[in-house]
Amino acid sequence: MTHNIAILGASGYTGAELVRIIAGHPSFRIVALSADRKAGMTMAEVYPHLRHLALPTLVSLDEVDFAGVDLVFAALPHGLSQAIVKDLPASVKVVDLGADFRLRDPAEYEKWYGAAHVATDLQKEAVYGLTEFYRDDIKGARLVAGTGCNAATVQFALRPLIAANVIDLDDILCDLKNGPTGAGRSLKENMLFAERSTDVQGYAQGGVHRHLGEFDQEFAAIAGRPVTIQFTPHLVPVNRGILASCYVKGDPKTVHQTLAHAYAEEPFIVVLPFGQQPGVGHVTGSNFAHIGVTGDRISGRVLVTAAVDNLCKGSSGQAVQNANLMLGEDETAGLMMAPVFP
Amino acid sequence: MTHNIAILGASGYTGAELVRIIAGHPSFRIVALSADRKAGMTMAEVYPHLRHLALPTLVSLDEVDFAGVDLVFAALPHGLSQAIVKDLPASVKVVDLGADFRLRDPAEYEKWYGAAHVATDLQKEAVYGLTEFYRDDIKGARLVAGTGCNAATVQFALRPLIAANVIDLDDILCDLKNGPTGAGRSLKENMLFAERSTDVQGYAQGGVHRHLGEFDQEFAAIAGRPVTIQFTPHLVPVNRGILASCYVKGDPKTVHQTLAHAYAEEPFIVVLPFGQQPGVGHVTGSNFAHIGVTGDRISGRVLVTAAVDNLCKGSSGQAVQNANLMLGEDETAGLMMAPVFP
Amino acid sequence: MTHNIAILGASGYTGAELVRIIAGHPSFRIVALSADRKAGMTMAEVYPHLRHLALPTLVSLDEVDFAGVDLVFAALPHGLSQAIVKDLPASVKVVDLGADFRLRDPAEYEKWYGAAHVATDLQKEAVYGLTEFYRDDIKGARLVAGTGCNAATVQFALRPLIAANVIDLDDILCDLKNGPTGAGRSLKENMLFAERSTDVQGYAQGGVHRHLGEFDQEFAAIAGRPVTIQFTPHLVPVNRGILASCYVKGDPKTVHQTLAHAYAEEPFIVVLPFGQQPGVGHVTGSNFAHIGVTGDRISGRVLVTAAVDNLCKGSSGQAVQNANLMLGEDETAGLMMAPVFP
Amino acid sequence: MTHNIAILGASGYTGAELVRIIAGHPSFRIVALSADRKAGMTMAEVYPHLRHLALPTLVSLDEVDFAGVDLVFAALPHGLSQAIVKDLPASVKVVDLGADFRLRDPAEYEKWYGAAHVATDLQKEAVYGLTEFYRDDIKGARLVAGTGCNAATVQFALRPLIAANVIDLDDILCDLKNGPTGAGRSLKENMLFAERSTDVQGYAQGGVHRHLGEFDQEFAAIAGRPVTIQFTPHLVPVNRGILASCYVKGDPKTVHQTLAHAYAEEPFIVVLPFGQQPGVGHVTGSNFAHIGVTGDRISGRVLVTAAVDNLCKGSSGQAVQNANLMLGEDETAGLMMAPVFP
Fold first, then answer.
1. What is the pTM of this model?
2. Tens digit of each residue's pLDDT (9 = 90 or more) over D75-115
3. What is the structure's pLDDT at B1?
4. How distant, in Å, are the alpha carbons of B168, D147, D149 from that of D10?
């Protein structure tokens, strides 16, 4: 059965990645693509790598005809998404790739995003889109909130450990190495090739990164108490990829076994043999996440490292995985492409 | 119908790329992987990005059991391939990704590769594997010789122009920009990250690159007379990709129309609108080739630029495309994955 | 003797490069830095790599006090520079790094830059800043026009050959591989790290690049007749560097000898042994240019390749070299730093 | 006064970097360069970026004439260096860039390097070469042991904090992002451009990296008790640079003030304003180290980040700085070149 798909905000990188994935999907058909500033252009003009595909021309948001659309992927700036989604026909399912529906608490939303939410009913209804942990809810959801890419990566490393109570909840430290595509196609001097290609530098450090709101919400829900992690992202010169080095306290072998057991049946989460560490180059272009666990010479210290492609498993791949569930398709449909290496 | 596939030389980059592609192929099943120096290792150890796949353990060449194998991909060093292929069971079809069967004339082989060919019968029998131009022969072939990656790229730009006699055959100049994966996984100082990542430099210049043998053979066959091109490759710091800037003399619009017409029905060759130029980033990880045509302020000069992913369309993608034909499958089976950008 | 230096347009890449070079100069002292949009900021805020230097705070153009200034480096957008320079005190010497004074003919200027020149007297007075060929004029000049970075690179390869009449003037083809810093710090989607880091693509092709105006002017002056070259730049993912592959017709050994002889006494131009090719990585961060000459299997074809760092020898290094001459200093003062490799 | 310098192991990256730096040094003259496997070659053949320099031809170690040599830089593999240095004439001063003399305790050396030391007398005599902290000892030393590049970077961040007792000594965690040049010019598959350019991956994790021996020795000496840090390096695709993210517990402002005060008079160590973070791109090619301090939303947590160029300040720049002291020159001679950015 074919499902009609609309992508709002198709001119950003996550929009392009959605198109790339859906091009290989057996039952999704793209019927509308919106991009306000690039309305009127073809996708081939905006993204020449998609030139071989037969795709609708980009239109502005208010030109999209939602009749017959089964599911919308919204890849819009935060703030805008909530305004758009609340006016969509009730028959249309929605996967939001932005930040608007990730936090359930309006106060938390306002704290991290600096403005009151305009669709608090939807905010409550939305299911958090970390597929491996919200699978059943997602199946029946009308609105799924895609997670932050950092948020997904770190949660893959930590959720089973928090749930199993095998690490010290008061001393969790996550140091991330991030490809610049996580910043999207926005025009900033420090995102120019000239400035990123020979640099490594931290950003949004000290506890101000908005994905912390997701960690706080999710980890508290699992632990039944507040869990406040330290989280530090760094930009590294690789297009795609997040490597999250998560430093925890516990027994290394127990940590490894807990993760291996938790993900044993997961199609996309691979736990490496004990002592091996993943590389972002080994998941590029794919929906896979690789997780490694290493002990330390200091007893009771454990390093859990998770690698994902931020545009795919961290965003658009996750979105398609959720859409598959929402539309009754096989969860892995269109998503089993192997990573591209070298 | 499932076809049993063996890959000889699976530990090199083209071997890994074959596995990546076949992982998404509807009817190919890998039953044997050989790699002499890495025999006994799993593919996950040699290429962690393929870790999620169920694959046979690597064995040495003489351990491969060819019973039940329908087709062999040979990704072996030149010289070795001819020795191996000539002893394979006659029932096994072969796509050779190396250089051993590209040149039909034993004298030419010896001239470019410095040693006499040891399987001259097979050399004559082999079909040159540039799919778009040898499709019918490939369908019935037992042995297909994969082309050089540079050779494929340049031929996509030039063959229709030579065939249509719309360019000056005595003044063809091709300047190539090549990603280092074309050199394979060989250990050389100038292939280290430290030495390539901030450098651009020519190599094998002045008419000594072995792919010239292919150009001479093929272009003479099309033109009915010798065609001697000038050909200069340069290493650029991008993993995958060849951009061939081919400078020819003729009428720009005629050149564009000739190419557009020649490739109008081809699933993988895209001719851009006149005046647009392709980028290697727009074909990365895919089996597509993009071709652009631009005129010049100097009347009668034309620039034809072709972009391919050297590991995919330039080698392993082409190999699968040929195998599809040889085994009676749809030519595009397993090969329609969209490029990965950014 | 200390010379007081002002840099107008100090917030761009060539401005920063001027500061870097002058930091090691024995007799230049920076007394003013202007940058309209960043006026009020310190250089450390705009360019943290210059943080260790004691530098004046950035001011707007009209706040610069030119009293006591010996020489101005103007690194301004074209059009603006001519308006500014014409109003400078006559006592101030000027090295213009932009395009405004490169072309002597007002009609040519208007043809390539799309607007009439507003300081045609200065345009006539300005000396073309290719130091190795205009050394004597530069010594006595008040206004020197820095060359285009591509223009410098290609002229190093070709000027002695045209002057010596050892190549065919009607068949010169230059294929360039360019680092994106040549585009400056301007904010464009295709200059983002995400879009350049895995791509190689031509730009400004077909004879529309503005540096062609310089080639036409200079080569005609040398040859005593029009010389129209074909010129095609390509963006490659390396911060600094231009590799110009210049295809000419002549005798390879004669070409090599002509270049070797022409540059035998030059401190910054190195002609490699015959058959060796330069890499941009071997001149990075320096004022050196490396030139290689190779023959071809086709008799009478020669490849001359020149490598420069576009920000240094191609722009700011050249500017300092010229300023040294204008101020009576040793031409190499502050410029002998070795390239940074790897 | 001119000092005669010999470089042993000149064909590696630190050897080349020594030559680059010394090329701009006012009083060092290179009189011998050794490189066993490349003996007989010119430096221009081994490192074309040094082609403009007049340098001695490479010779084998036993061909070096030490008569008249004032100081030797030994950039040799560990194990070899101790054997060579112990047989040098007593009149020759030595800066060893390898690991052989970093650890004073023979048992510690054997533990980390797997073999007994063959020159334990010299081991005891050697001064640890972290200039900013051993300045007086270095001035009078005959043998100085260059530090590990990671060891230098992390010590810049931590030594003043341990000395001032302002951080918790039992909970120090250092996550490093390292350019691959730290591995030298050794030929390994995972150091190929193809494998590093799109990857980020940890290595030598879990407390096995040999630089831990240096931390243990140095921090215990400062603290007067054992200090065991957690230390995790990761490879990132940037040629030069180490970014050390050091997570400590203490008061952020106190930490910042302690560092700012400690380095107030240092010519090469720059402490950024509170809350700013350094980038490795801002020290590339230079002898500077940038240090940043940020607090966290979790009270009592501090992130101290240090950026150095591993080949320069982390190795060869430090070596020249030490040699300056040993030879009675100004400590900064030849070392004030500004970083190269972009």
1. 0.97
2. 999 899 999 999 999 999 999 999 999 999 999 999 999 99
3. 84
4. 51, 18, 18
Give the model confidence (pLDDT) of A186-214 as tens digits: 999 999 999 999 999 999 999 999 999 99
Report the pLDDT value the prediction gives residue A1, as an integer from 0 to 100: 84
DSSP A207-235: TT-THHHHHHHHHHHHHTS----EEEEEE
Spatial contact of A257 and A168, defined as CB atoms under 8 Å apart: no
Q: Output the pLDDT for position D31.
A: 98
The pLDDT, as a whole number, for residue D130 is 98
**Tokens linked to C301:** 């074809």
**Interstrand relation of C3-8 and D58-59 (parallel, antiparallel or unpaired):** unpaired
User: The tokens of C242 are what?
Assistant: 């231009």
The neighbours of chain B, by the rule of 3 or more Cβ pairs under 8 Å, are A, C, D
pLDDT given for residue D18 in this prediction: 98
For B260, C155, D306, the CA distances from D156, given in Å and listed in that order, are 62, 47, 7
Q: Where residue B149 falls among pLDDT bands split at 50, 70, 90?
A: very high
Q: Is the pLDDT of residue D1 over 90?
A: no
pLDDT for A162 equals 98
Q: Which residues pair with D73 in a beta bridge?
A: D7, D95
Calpha distance B66→B92 (Å, rounded)? 8
b/e per residue D177-209 (b: at least 16 CB within 10 A): bbbbbbbbbeeeeebbbbbbbbbbbbebbbbeb
- Using CB atoms, list chains with 3+ pairs below 8 Å to chain C: A, B, D
Residue at token pair 């190419």: B259
Q: Indicate the average pLDDT of chain A.
A: 97
D279 strand-pairing partners: A201
Number of B/D CB contacts below 8 angstroms equals: 57
For range B99-113, the mean pLDDT: 95
Nearest residue on chain C to A183, alpha-carbon basis: C194
Q: Which residues in chain C are contacts of D288 at CB distance < 8 A? A: 52
- Please indicate if any CB of chain C lies within 8 Å of the CB of B302: no
Task: Inform me whether the pLDDT recorded for C1 exceeds 90.
Answer: no
Picking from B153, B176, B197, B198 by the largest number of C CB atoms within 10 A of its own CB, the best residue to mutate is: B198
For C71-130, the DSSP string reads EEEE---TTHHHHHHTTS-TTSEEEE-SSTTT-S-HHHHHHHHSS--S-HHHHHHPEE--
Chain B residues within 8 A of D37 when measuring between CB atoms: none
Q: What percent of chain B has pLDDT over 70?
A: 100
Annotated catalytic residue, options B149, B174, B246, B312: B149
Q: Which of residues 237-256 of A touch B (CB under 8 A)?
A: 239-240
In this predicted complex, what is the ipTM?
0.96
d(CA A255, CA C261): 70
How far apart (Å, rounded) are the C-alpha atoms in residues A39 and A256?
49
**Where on the phi/psi map is residue A180: left (φ > 0), alpha (ψ -120 to 50), or beta?**
alpha
Query: Count of CB atoms within 10 A of residue A207's CB?
Result: 18
CA-atom Rg of chain A in angstroms: 19
Percent share of chain C, pLDDT over 90: 99
Q: What is the rounded CA–CA span in Å between residue C16 and residue C113?
A: 25
Whether A342 and chain C come into contact, CB under 8 Å, resolves to no
DSSP run (H or E) holding A18 = helix A13-22
Q: Which residues of B touch D45 (CB under 8 A)?
A: none
Nearest to C338 among D49, D281, D290 (CB): D49
Averaged confidence pLDDT in chain B: 97
Residue D122's pLDDT band (boundaries 50, 70, 90)? very high
Residues of A in contact with C196 (CB under 8 A): 193, 197
Task: Please give the distance of CA B332 from its chain centroid, rounded to a whole number.
Answer: 16
List domains and CATH numbers for chain C. Answer: 3-146+313-326 (3.40.50.720), 150-310 (3.30.360.10)
